[in-house]
Structures are given as structure tokens and as C-alpha cells.
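note to self: dont lose this again. the chain is below, predicted strucutre after it. 246 aa total, dont forget to put it in the shared folder this time
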Amino acid sequence: MPITLENHQDVAVVRIDHGGGNTLDTDSCRALVRRLEEAEQARAVVLTGTGRVFCAGVDLKRIDEGGASYVAEFLPLLSDALLAVFGCPRPVVAALNGHAIAGGAVLAAACDHRVLGAGTIGVTELLVGVPFPLAALEILRCTYGTTQLPSLTYSGETWAGADAVARGLADEQAPPEDVLERAIAVATRLGDLPAEPFAHTKAQIRQPFHERIAEYRHSDDPQVERLWQSAEALAAVKSYVDRVLR
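---
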């Protein structure tokens, strides 16, 4: 199972357990949506990873192997998985047990609170040569604000520890061995709030971003798909895979 579900009293712990990098591919994106649906009776959700990585983002090896046809299948599923976290009506807390890179950083941004235990966090898509799906960019905009988006996205830089907290990429730090326990404690506190008023308030906060995604996704997604499928992008992905991941 690329995504597992554990129950800690009234808190559902959804854990990414998908290879060494806990990466996002068609299987893990579908599984993440299913696990969140299965956790709908929980008071709150904690999203975490396995080992020393929270989520390293898109499985670029699958992109390299599958090419343009795989991209066409994968990108809508990626947006659906990110939106499943972002649109969850219950509190969702990220327990960042390790690196949260690219799509992993967007997953963290889709949560309501981020506890950083170890590793770095940052969005590196442009360094690989691919643009952000609209859903991903709007999630980043909601959490970090439009003003900070250029410095986050153009640089592709990643930050750790106190620097990540100072930039607002994480809300707090915890010792690596305590990050899950701390995230469950925060989720429990948020889950103790009245469920329907919390869900309505969360929906109000995120409504403008959901509306922009709903209005523009049908026109933006094909452009993003075309750019991911371009010969230049696929060559850049292959180069990165050969240099870094092989």
C-alpha cells in the first residue's frame, strides 16, 4: 500500500509509504484520495511520511519511463490528490518527518498546520523544467501569500529548521523523534473545536482559491500538460533522473 491509514483515538494518521522518496505517482495519488475518504469519520487527520522523507514530490522516474502518455494520466490525479488534502473539511496537520520537496512541499502547504521535525522544505519544480499545475500554485498562494510566491518558486531553494519556520514554510519545530506525537497533539486540539463551524470557517478562508481553481483549471491544465509533455521538459526530467536518481 503506497498510503496507509492508522487510527490514534480520534485522529487518523495517513502515512505516505511509497519507496525511498515517498513519491507521488498515479498509484499513490489515487491511494491518498481513498485514504482521506476512509478517514472521514475522524475528528482530525495527520499526514506524514516514512523514514527520513515526508514526500520528495513527483516520481520523476515514472515520468521518464512513461513519457507523454503517462503525463496525461498523472497530472489530473496529482491535482485531485492535492485538492483532496486542501479541501478536507477536518483539520489536517502535517508531521514533516523529513524532506518535503516540490509536490511534497505543496502537500504540506495544503494542510492546516505544519510541524517540522527534520529535513528541508521547498518547491523545486522550475529547476527540473516543469511548471506548477494551477491547483498546486493556488494552494501555495493560499498558505504563503502572493508576495512570497516568486521567491519560493523562481529560486527552487529549500530551507531547513529555523529558516523554514522563519519563512512560514513550517509553523513550528519539534525534535525528529517527537514530530508525530506533536502533530497528533495539535490535530487533537484542532479536532476538539466544533466540527461544523470549523469546516465552515476553513471553507470561507479557502473559498477564493477553490473558486480560482474551478474557474481556470479547465483552461490552464492543458497548457501545463503540454509543457510537461514537451521534448525539452522530458529531456530535462531524463537528465535529472540520470544525474540524481540513478
